[in-house]
């Protein structure tokens, strides 16, 4: 069992929150489009009000299933947003850091 979430203290760009000069609503739309394009990433629920998506991802026999939460935040009316990602797995071999890195890298490519 493992857990990992984005943190500004991380040295890798792909493990830090994705911060861009775009509206949080626009970035949230991009998050949802990206999730449609990622094979194996299944959207469990979408909270439009709090700009949060809950996702499941199967990681194979020993990896179990990851529960991933993606949250977009930012001020109202100002083009600035931050996207945080957390992943928690129930398998013997955790893929949480890889899940977070994969999503942040692909989101960065779409919003910059």
UniProtKB/TrEMBL annotation:
UniProt superkingdom: Bacteria
Protein name: Uncharacterized protein
Originating species: Saltatorellus ferox
Taxonomic classification: Bacteria, Pseudomonadati, Planctomycetota, Planctomycetia, Planctomycetia incertae sedis
